[in-house]
Amino acid sequence: MKKNKIGTHLAIHAEYHLSVNFFLPLLSIQLNGNQTIKVNDNSLELFSNSMSHIESSLFLTFFVLFFFITFIATIIAYWNYKLRTRVKLQMKEIKTSEEYRNRIFESSIIPIIVMDPDSNKFIDCNQAAVEIYRYKFKEEVIGKSLTEVSPTYQDNGELSSDKSLYYIETALKSESIIYNWKHQRPNGELWDSEVHLLSFNIGEKKLLQFSLLDITEQKRAIQLMHDIIDKNPMSIQILDKQGYTIRINQAHTKLFGAIPPEDYSVFEDNQLRNLGYKELIDRAKAGEIIHFPDFCYNAHLVNQEFPDLPVWIRMIIFPLFDNSGNIERYVLMHEDITDKKLYEEALRKSESLARTVIDNSTTGISVRSNTGQLLLYNQAWINMWEISEERLEKDLKPREVLKFNERDEYFSQYHEGVLNVYRNGGSYTIPEISTSGKFSHSGKPRCINQHFTGITNKDGVVERVVILSYDITESKQAELEKEKLISQLIHAQKMESIGRLAGGVAHDFNNMLGVIIGYTDLAMGLTDSNISTYKYLQEIGKAAKRSANLTRQLLAYARKQTVNPIVLELNEAIKGMKKMLGRLIGEDIELSYNPSNYPIFLEIDPSQIDQILANLCINARDAISNTGKITIETMTININEEYSSSHIEALSGEFALLIIGDNGCGMDIVTLENLFEPFYTTKEIGKGTGLGLATVYGIIKQNNGFIEVNSDLGIGSIFKIYLPLYKNQFRQSLQMQASTSDIGGNETILLVEDEKTFLNMTREMLEMHGYNVLATISPKEALNIANQHKDKIDLLITDVIMPEMNGRDLSYKILDICPDIKRLYMSGYTASVIEHHGVLEKGANFIQKPFNIESLAEKVREILDNE
Questions:
Q1: Do residues 614 and 606 make contact, with C-beta atoms less than 8 angstroms apart?
Q2: DSSP one-letter code for 682
Q3: Hey, CA dihedral for 222, 224, 225, 230, is it positive or negative?
């Protein structure tokens, strides 16, 4: 500003002197080289008097020179005018510029103060500076020094006067500096600012400008954060991006016994890695919030001054992100939960003891709220009332009002007594509740005694009701059981008597039937077939043969049938019987025979094989309405101890397996329970003796075998007959099939089977042949394995009927993940039965359960090698 004023003054001064010098000049003229004529205000007269004495040529010269000088002066005056006009414009711009600066300076919301460094006094400030110091007028600020608006000491203990001189000198040297400063208002209130101190020149004068930013709240927030960290009873550790410690609080040192070394990274901590937390650490580094499992730590191992006692620590780590979303820091927090662990352990032991007593009690125990919500129960209560999962889930839900469930009818005559306990407390006993069984899965009625006791709070309000249930079914049925046992004994004696009777008269009766049949045949040979006598003899022969068959069935059930066991090949025996079976079941029913690929030798009476096939095929025929299918399959199987121990009827060893299945109506539970009882039949009177399946059962038992039956209503039935292999011939057949048992490979197989025992057995079979097996009991888990397995999966082996998902649907989902995978289905039902109900596509690769290791290996190899 000062420079502009000086320039203006110099310009005006120059203008003034130019005008005077050019319009009123002093002229000195040399005449004849000796006489000088001075021209001034008085010389005009002399000039006029001397004109006559000067030659006309000299006058003309002088006159021209005069006008030339006048012309030059005029030009200079013109340029002087232009210069003055330009100076005026510059002055106007300068004035506008100052006004603009003043507006910015005054209207700025940032407090600005100008200081003279020579006097250390404020010489100017804006309105924001006045307000931040809590003054009313500028004059109250101007003239003060920095120490006058500051406390005696700064936060670090240095004198404000010394520190301010240091910052002023630094700014004068380096032109600018930024620092934090504590100020003091007239009322003594302290506040913090971030100061931007700038030095600048006006002319030759150096000045300082203070720009202030109030950071009081920010500093308080930072201090609050520091206090939260330092005074927190939980250990806090701040880490950098590599896991190195930036800061810890006192609780951390108290917990761990030492300050982490500079070269120690939490991410490389051996103890955490030994605990198996590497994966969790990696996830934390990726930005996840991780709650680590509780672990033990003994600070005595680090610092001998600490007691030699392990503590339980709960740890959590979470990231801090910068404005760009990148991880900048990690916060690691540790909590000493030793007391909580000890309390939980004591509580657990106490609860475990109480729970053990409750759970092992034969008394049904349940506790409900005053609105009937189930709060506690034991297994005896579940078993006693046969509570379903759906019912249990409903009982566990909170209730607003008391309302009995669907068993209201049991409480009808005791309703008021039970209700009184829920409302007023006290006790009440229901001597006997007879259930119908319609709400239980077994359908069996029970007789239960119940005792209700209300538990009240200090105000006498009922909060809980304890219900003790006693199953008195057995005691109530004791007399009925006695009668039933007597009836069963009589029935058993009757059956035994039938057996003894059949055994006693068998030979004689059969001999007589043989005589009748023989003479009938002789008579028929001597009789013309065109006469009526021949027809009578035919009927006599048929009746005799039916009688012989009935006798054979009775003997078979009594296990006293006279048999003539021979070594036979099962596949050939069934093949020879197939034509007759076709006539027995009729043309509307398809008969499918799938024999094993290798011979199966048995030591058995051939007629017994015929009886088994005939009886089971006739039963299957009767179970099929209209058209249907009966399937006969054979194979060999090795039953291990694990399987036989979990199946009551099963025996361990090497067996021939004969499977007869149908897609008929199936059987219910009651029918299955009485299936092999003599004279038990579901057929109409006159259409069945009830001895067919009893005969089959007797034959199998007589030959040291066993039978399993699977049946579902609307799907069909499968009979699996296990008969011991003829050992010697079996060894020969094994030798012939050695190449089959040696079949193996190194492909990867995904195995899915919901029965864990069967899963493990099958996996061992496959691994024994060199395959890499990925086994699971869950279809959902199988999908996860297929998604996550990096290498190729060559074959999927899956059960067909599973809880979560059937095998067909699973295979389709697996195909989406592994398009080249091959599939093999397995089931206790035959493939034909499953296909009939749409669970499998026709022609799918299938193996019947149970199977032996050879048949499985052969089937797997066949599928893998099939292009």
A1: no
A2: -
A3: positive
Give the single-character DSSP code of 548. H
Residue 253 has pLDDT above 60, yes or no: yes
Report the C-alpha gap between 229 and 159 in whole angstroms.
30
Q: Are 733 and 598 in contact (CB under 8 A)?
A: yes
- Integer distance in angstroms from the first to the last C-alpha of the chain? 98
Q: Is the pLDDT of residue 629 over 80?
A: yes
Question: Is residue 124 within 8 Å of 142, Cβ to Cβ?
Answer: yes
Q: Which of 17-31, 697-711, 831-845 has the lowest mean pLDDT?
A: 17-31
pLDDT for the residue 849: 66
- SS3 assignment, position 471: strand
Closest CA to 800 of 853, 837, 840, 766: 840
Distance CA 85, CA 451 (A): 119
For residue 330, how far is the Cα from the chain centroid? 25
Whether residue 2 is predicted with pLDDT greater than 50 in this model: the reply is no
Phi and psi (nearest 5°) for 352? -65, -40
pTM of the model: 0.32
Q: What percent of the chain has a predicted confidence (pLDDT) above 70? A: 74
Q: For the purposes of burial, counting CB atoms within 10 Å of the CB of 527, is it exposed (0-12), middle (13-18) or buried (19 or more)?
A: middle
CB of 181 closer than 8 Å to CB of 197: no
Could you tell me if 237 and 248 are in contact, meaning their C-beta atoms sit under 8 angstroms apart? yes
**Token pair of 726 as six digits:** 């003829």
**C-alpha distances out from residue 444 to 240, 385, 410, 475, 818, Å:** 68, 10, 15, 16, 49
d(CA 301, CA 304): 7
Give how far the C-alpha of residue 25 lies from the chain's centroid of Cα atoms, to the nearest Å: 109
pLDDT by residue (tens digit) across 593-621?
Answer: 999 988 999 988 887 888 888 888 888 88
Sheet holding 205-214, edge to edge: 121-125, 112-116, 205-214, 190-202, 176-184
State residue 207 phi and psi, 5-degree precision: -130, 165
Q: Are strands 748-752 and 772-776 parallel, antiparallel or unpaired?
A: parallel
Q: Which two tokens stand for residue 92?
A: 């106007």
837 closest CA partner among 711, 668, 715, 718: 715
Distance CA 495, CA 489 (A): 10
Structure tokens at 593: 């025979």
Closest-CA residue to 638 (of 626, 622, 624, 654) = 654
Angle between helix 779-788 and helix 807-817 axes, rounded to 10 deg: 10
Which residue in this structure is represented by tokens 């600048």?
Answer: 200
In sequence order, what DSSP letters do the residues of 165-198 get, joined into one string?
A: HHHHHHHHHHSEEEEEEEEE-TTS-EEEEEEEEE
For position 449, what pLDDT does the model report? Answer: 87
In the block, tokens 């086994």 appear at 775
Three-state DSSP at 328 gives: strand
d(CA 602, CA 565): 9
Q: What are phi and psi of 569, to 5 degrees?
A: -95, 120
What's the chain's average pLDDT? 77
Could you tell me the two tokens for 21?
Answer: 């010098």
CA distance 176 to 167: 9
Q: Which of 246, 248, 252, 258 minimizes the C-alpha distance to 234?
A: 252
Is the pLDDT assigned to residue 766 strictly greater than 80? yes
- The count of residues in the chain is 867
Instruction: Give the model's confidence band at 780: pLDDT under 50 very low, under 70 low, under 90 confident, else very high.
Output: very high
Check if the beta carbon of residue 77 is closer than 8 Å to that of residue 22.
Answer: yes
Q: How far apart are CA 354 and CA 637, in angstroms?
A: 48
What does the pLDDT look like over 530-552, one tens digit per residue?
888 888 888 887 787 667 666 65
